[in-house]
Design goal:
- Its main location: secreted.
- Among the domains are: 33 residues; 189 residues, Gamma Fibrinogen, Chain A, domain 1.
- The protein is 32% helix and 20% strand.
- The protein is built from 7 helices and 16 strands.
- The strands form 4 sheets. Strands 1, 2, 3, 4, 5, 6, 7, 8, 9 and 16 form a 10-stranded antiparallel β-sheet that branches. It has a two-stranded antiparallel sheet with strand order 10-11.
- Helix 1 runs antiparallel to helix 2.
- The longest helix has 72 residues.
- The chain is elongated and about 140 Å long.
């Protein structure tokens, strides 16, 4: 028997394909087909096939890399588009917020203007020395005297000035010396501002220490001080003093108060002697008369200036005390633990001081009855 000659290497995949094809042919042709077909199938060497497969793999890898690069670019573009869209949304929202704030400011101004228009826009010409005197002068000729801005001329003064007169509160005749209602006026002021006065007479204002001094120190006159308080939950209360006067500027307008009456407690005098603010001089952040020299202890703290402790507002401080109706509430959230609000500490509910949203300090002339020495 002749031994077959050595032939070229046969690729396993191609040989298998040839075998499968031969299995379908007649038995008599299998030998001839094996000699011819098998030789043709292995005509491509295995190393070339491997190279082709390697090239195909490199091609697929290259296409995959290109696909990944394209995907990365599209992803970055998508993220950039999303960020730009969010930024546009934020810009629109910011614009809406700015527009809303402008409308709020316009509305606040309109409310303040409307409040002023509720009363006399043009001051009524002088009818007396103060609002009590005006009431007495007009009540016989005017059925109902309106509240509003009037011009008064206290005795022994060189000039007239405007005041707001409340004519419909507790029989009228009240001269308003201070009012806090809506927070539109800042009470963090210097001594000069508290001396001359500031604000809108028809709204929030401080009349001025010099003007109040001229009113309450008129000859043969005595004035009552009335303090009306309203809490954040609309509870009302008051404190009244039957004799109120101020010393002159050289004494820094030292306050003098008579007997107390009311429902809010006597915060001016407090509970202990060191809390008593009666007879205290007026202080501001730049004129310190509070008795803390060089410092004092208040609420377990060392205090050098009660005005600064009370948010740079002016008041009759005596080692700080329990009352400050000029206290500034705007910074309350930023100064936790500090007493920077409108303060009347003796007005409490369940042991906690009321949060005060509005207050009015007003003065009215008291009738003086002269005693006849010849009458028994």
């Amino acid at each position: 028997m002749m031994r077959p000659t050595q032939s070229e290497p046969v690729c396993p995949v191609q040989a298998q394909a040839a075998v499968e094809e031969l299995s379908d042919s007649p038995v008599k042709d299998q030998k001839a087909f094996r000699q011819t077909k098998g030789h043709d199938a292995c005509s491509i060497p295995c190393d070339i096939t491997v190279k082709l497969l390697r090239d195909e793999k490199h091609s697929i890898c290259g296409e995959l890399q290109q696909s990944l690069l394209a995907f990365g670019r599209s992803t970055r573009k998508l993220i950039r588009d999303v960020i730009e869209e969010q930024q546009r949304g934020l810009d629109v929202l910011s614009g809406q917020v700015s527009e809303l704030m402008s409308k709020v400011q316009m509305l606040s101004s309109e409310v303040q203007r409307s409040n002023a228009e509720m009363y006399s826009i043009k001051p009524v010409q002088s009818h007396g020395r103060d609002c009590s005197d005006i009431k007495e002068s007009l009540m016989s000729v005017v059925p109902k005297i309106p509240s509003g801005i009037y011009i008064i001329h206290p005795e022994e003064t060189d000039s007239s000035f405007e005041v707001f007169c409340e004519m419909d509160y507790m029989e009228g005749g009240w001269t308003v010396m201070q009012r806090r209602t809506d927070g539109l006026n800042d009470f963090k002021r210097s001594w000069a501002d508290y001396l001359d006065g500031f604000g809108n007479l028809a709204g929030e204002h401080w009349l001025g220490l010099k003007k109040v001094f001229h009113i309450v120190n008129q000859k043969d006159a005595r004035f009552q001080l009335h303090i009306a308080l309203v809490s954040n939950n609309d509870v009302t209360s008051y404190a009244s003093y039957d004799d109120f006067r101020l010393d002159n500027e050289t004494q820094f307008f030292r306050i003098h108060l008579g007997r107390y009456a009311g429902s809010a407690g006597d915060a001016f005098r407090g509970y202990e002697q060191e809390q008593n603010q009666n007879t205290a001089p007026f202080s501001a952040s730049d004129v310190d008369n509070d008795g803390c020299n060089p410092s004092c202890s208040f609420a377990n703290r060392t205090v050098e200036s009660c005005s600064i402790l009370h948010n740079h507002t002016g008041w009759w401080f005596n080692q700080c005390g329990l009352a400050n109706l000029n206290g500034s509430p705007e910074d309350g959230e930023q100064n936790q633990g500090k007493r920077t609000r409108i303060l009347w500490d003796t007005w409490r509910q369940s042991g906690v001081p009321y949060a005060i949203k509005s207050v009015t300090m007003k003065i009215r002339r008291l009738l003086l009855f002269k005693v006849n020495p010849f009458k028994s």
